[in-house]
Amino acid sequence: MGMNQPRNRLRRTVRLICLLFVVALLSSFAARAQLTIEIVGGAGTTVPIAIVPFENEANWPLGITGIVGADLERSGLFRLIDAGGIAPRPARAEDVKFGDYRARGADAVVVGSMRPLGDGRVEVRFALLDAVKQTQLAAMTYVVTPPQFRATAHRIADVIYEKLTGDAGVFSTRIAYITRNRARYELVVADADGSNPQAVVASNEPLLSPAWAPDGTRLAYVSLENKKPVVYVQSLATGQRQVLANFRGSNSAPAWAPDGRRLAVTLTKDGGSQLFLINADGTGVQRLLSSPGIDTEASFTPDGKALLFASDRGGTPQIYRLNIATGVVERLTFEGGHNVSPRATPDGKGFVFVRREGGRFMVAIQDYATRQVQVLTQGPLDESPSIAPNSKLIIYAAQQGARGILAGVSTDGRVKQRLVSPAADVREPAWGPLSR
Length: 436
Description:
Elements: H1 4-25, E1 36-41, E2 47-51, H2 65-74, E3 78-81, H3 98-102, E4 108-116, E5 122-130, E6 135-144, H4 149-165, E7 174-181, E8 184-191, E9 198-203, E10 207-212, E11 218-223, E12 230-235, E13 241-245, E14 251-256, E15 262-267, E16 274-279, E17 286-287, E18 295-300, E19 306-311, E20 318-323, E21 329-331, E22 339-344, E23 350-357, E24 360-367, E25 373-375, E26 383-387, E27 393-400, E28 403-410, E29 416-420, E30 425-431
């Protein structure tokens, strides 16, 4: 009887989360509305940067510098300095008079140009300059077509971010999430800034748990279209999908291994929720653990040698780490009576998870070395955390009024964002890998 109590508590918790998820989804109106990112809290220190409109940029309806500036500003780490009114307007590094921009408080300056090549393509040049040291930090040239302007702007923002912060930029990455419009669920893929949303899967039954393959070409997800949870893998290039796991009972919680060859899934085919490994083509099913508790929500560590997972084997839902080679299991969380949904940070230093305290679900992060825990959000229903590939930002599902939104928080807790759709209810975010 004592062993059944924690298992029943975890089951009730899972059912409660699922119920809240479905109820929140019922309030949606439009499935593919573009997300708008709002900064609701910024870093204490920001880099003042002047982005000079590129030469000839006005000749095209969609420019580049506006997107670059918006990317940097939304990160919460940069402050845009007005570059207008300085004449002549520089387009090359050698044309910049650093005193003009230092007088306005800029520590960095971006200049560039756009030149048509006569075959429909455009040469885009830019340079990043350190206005304090009066040196050039980066200079690049891209040859693109107008439909590629937005992607090019994200790439430029990535270069600037990396040169000025030392961390990889993630503006060129993509996110996936679930929306619902009345009885229609969609799995949507969009740019990291919420632009260019595209539905890649649609169903009249719930879709859950999208997970990116490491190469960014496929998504695993769970569909209830057959009136039970089944795991599929979808190709983004071809639109083709295959069944990954459709065993007796529930098939859920897919997580890719770093090499993209295998996934961890939670199956109930042998009784109880247990962790299995399965090849990406659906073959080679291997049970990892045999425990009396519920083991679920696996996440690979960056080296692929271990899995983080949630289990009630100790009496309450907590986070554990499994050494795949040896089968050794180590408990990682000890504070609080309810810790679930672990996600290993890509830098290998720790993991993000959901903690329940006083009936509020909040996103937290724990460091492996120190075991120090920092609660990053306030709830009341924050769930499904997913970490940017540079380990600096977490996207998660939250609630605003009666509907679900996505929100973001930096792993140090200082930068906070809201990703809001004008009408749609949005859930289950998943951050894609760095672009290749």
